[in-house]
């Protein structure tokens, strides 16, 4: 079974906004921004668009292995000024309020390699609404325009940076704690374990070097194998 089949999140769930409704039914609507706030965030980001050139989206985590976007081109990309890490508590997507999981986020400093996706001008706003419902449902990220270096040259891309003032910001966690959390947490989008393993696999497929991610995946697989043998 491939990675997209494994994950519980599907594009039609975002089109129908069913994740929001599921969270609301679970009694945790206080963790969400309203639909009006979400739309205002998208509108504000588009108003800051640096140019009339095609819009790109820079993915650095699950967007690499499950973009769920309609795009016209895909390019390896490098951004500077931000680096990737498990800096985000996930109480909706890959965890719950009782057992929070972790997902990747960009934080200040360094550089990050990922994948850039070019959107069609005529359908860009529709695709971005789907993206916002995926990434901006909670009070976690700040959307940013970044300059991404690709084989085509520099492009303007939207990406998502952790809001350090958010309760979702973890700060720096040690590797063993990240692995322990990943083994336990499950959310509306699937398990934290699947998220970590699939992201590491996708990096290898795409030729993205990230020694820490590979080490975390190796430790997680080892711990999981040991726990199964114990039974």
Structural class: alpha+beta
Strand content: 25-35%
Question: What is the H/E string?
Answer: HHHHEHEEHEEHEEHH
Outline type: globular
**CATH-defined architecture:** Roll
Short overview:
The chain is an alpha+beta fold and 231 residues long.
Task: Give an account of the 3D structure.
The structure is a single chain. The chain is α+β, with helices and mostly antiparallel strands and 231 residues long. The chain has one domain: Roll (Hypothetical upf0131 protein ytfp), CATH 3.10.490. 39% of the residues lie in helices and 28% in strands. It has 9 helices and 7 strands; from the N terminus they run H-H-H-H-E-H-E-E-H-E-E-H-E-E-H-H. The strands form 2 sheets. Strands 2-3-1-5-4 form a 5-stranded mixed beta sheet. A hairpin with a 2-residue loop joins strand 4 and strand 5. Helix 7 packs across helix 9 and helix 8 packs across helix 9. The longest helix is centred in the last third of the chain and has 20 residues. It is globular.
What's the structural blueprint in terms of helices and strands?
Blueprint: H1 3-6, H2 11-15, H3 18-25, H4 35-47, E1 56-59, H5 62-65, E2 73-90, E3 101-118, H6 124-135, E4 141-150, E5 153-162, H7 175-184, E6 186-187, E7 190-191, H8 192-206, H9 211-230
Parallel strand pairs: 1-5
Antiparallel strand pairs: 1-3, 2-3, 4-5, 6-7
Helix pairs in contact: 7-8, 7-9, 8-9
